[in-house]
Specification:
This protein has 150 residues and is of the alpha+beta class. The protein contains five helices and six strands. It has a single domain, classed as Yope Regulator, Chain: A (2-Layer Sandwich), CATH 3.30.1460.10. Strands 1-2-3-4-6-5 form a six-stranded antiparallel beta sheet.
Length: 150
């Protein structure tokens, strides 16, 4: 994990305030992008229209209507170089709860956190993403499980 890059992503979000304090009933990819970029994030599209990349993490919008507005938001990250034991994942989940950790089929770490887009504000969305990033970058806990993926 690259602590410098993670710190830079977090610093951008921590010091930038959202442009407005809108409250959303459901959220579109365009609105999500605008909120994150307004808070200083660098947002990239992916091959899937409902998933955005922000740094090393991804944001997936689900439960979407025909208008492209979605009710659920999932922050997630997959790690190519972190191979935790099932016991470590269970311990994390029993002590941290959010974000939730799991193992990918290849034994690498997956972390995710779900929030509702219904009633979410710009500030709440950014605050939740920053919180997710803080725990997703927890090398104090996951550090012993990092190994070269080569």
């Amino acid at each position: 994990m690259r602590i410098g890059l993670i710190a830079a992503v977090l610093a951008g979000f921590v010091f930038a305030a959202p442009a407005n304090a809108a409250q959303y009933e459901r959220l579109s990819v365009a609105e999500l992008t605008q909120i994150l970029e307004g808070a200083g994030g660098t947002v990239s599209s992916t091959s899937k229209s409902d998933i955005l990349q922000v740094g090393s993490s991804f944001i997936w919008l689900t439960d979407c209507g025909s208008d492209g507005k979605c009710a659920e938001i999932c922050f997630f990250r997959n790690y190519k170089d972190v191979f935790p034991t099932l016991q470590a994942v269970n311990t994390w989940n029993n002590t941290k709860k959010i974000p939730e950790a799991s193992l990918n089929p290849n034994g690498t770490l997956h972390m995710e956190m779900w929030i509702s887009a219904i009633g979410v504000t710009d500030k709440a969305l950014v605050d939740n993403f920053v919180w997710f990033e803080k725990y997703a970058a927890d090398t104090d806990y996951w550090g012993p499980f990092i190994r070269s993926s080569s």
